[in-house]
Design goal:
Layout lengths: L1 E2 L6 E3 L6 E8 L10 E8 L11 E9 L3 E5 L4 E4 L6 E4 L4 E5 L4 E9 L3 E9 L2 E3 L5 E8 L1 E4 L2 E4 L3 E2 L9 E3 L4 E9 L8
Length: 191
């Protein structure tokens, strides 16, 4: 299934200080209190602090703009200025933001840590890639990716609709962010 960013309505951050476009959530229709995982594209146009999500592991990657510096409440300072380089942090962490130079957009993965583990991988084209069974979403960050369901342009995402193996063809200059989710076995959790 292809998801067009233009079809994903803008919605306010949980803290109301920014906006985001939810590309995918599991289970479908889940809200911020009951999702297992969620992928969104955030617009960061001011030095507003991030929303806090207790019990959630987050990964963020710069898509557009010059980025920002994240100051975390554990004392770490992370410059999110290198495009497409995922950075992981706990959702309950208090994060202050200082923009480098103008607004940015970033890719966000959130995973409920009690039930699953997630990661964001980077594929660079050209070439053919076959997502493994734990891949739940492929986001086209640059150029074009061809799937059996049609082309993905920058800003589009693809979700597998069956367990059958598929191939995605990245064109010259293409770059994809791939979300992998591994659920814990019933009765087991990370904690």
């Amino acid at each position: 299934m292809i998801i067009r960013l233009s079809d994903c309505p803008s919605q306010p951050w949980k803290n109301g200080l920014g906006s985001t476009r939810e590309m995918a959530v599991h289970p479908p229709g889940a809200g911020s209190d009951d999702f297992l995982w969620r992928v969104s594209i955030a617009e960061v146009d001011s030095a507003a602090p991030f929303s806090r999500f207790p019990g959630i592991d987050r990964q963020i990657a710069l898509l557009d703009g010059n980025g920002f510096t994240m100051t975390l409440d554990d004392g770490r300072i992370h410059p999110l200025t290198t495009p497409f380089a995922p950075f992981a942090f706990a959702g309950e962490t208090k994060v202050a933001v200082n923009l480098v130079d103008g607004p940015t957009r970033d890719f966000n993965l959130m995973v409920r840590r009690e039930h699953a583990r997630g990661e964001v991988l980077v594929w660079r084209g050209p070439g053919t890639h076959e997502p493994d069974p734990s891949s739940v979403l492929v986001y086209c960050a640059r150029s074009v990716i061809y799937s059996a369901e049609g082309p993905l342009h920058a800003g589009d995402a693809w979700r597998p609709s069956s367990a059958s193996p598929v191939q995605l063809h990245l064109q010259h200059g293409a770059l994809a962010l791939v979300v992998r989710i591994e659920r814990y076995a019933p009765g087991r959790s990370r904690t």
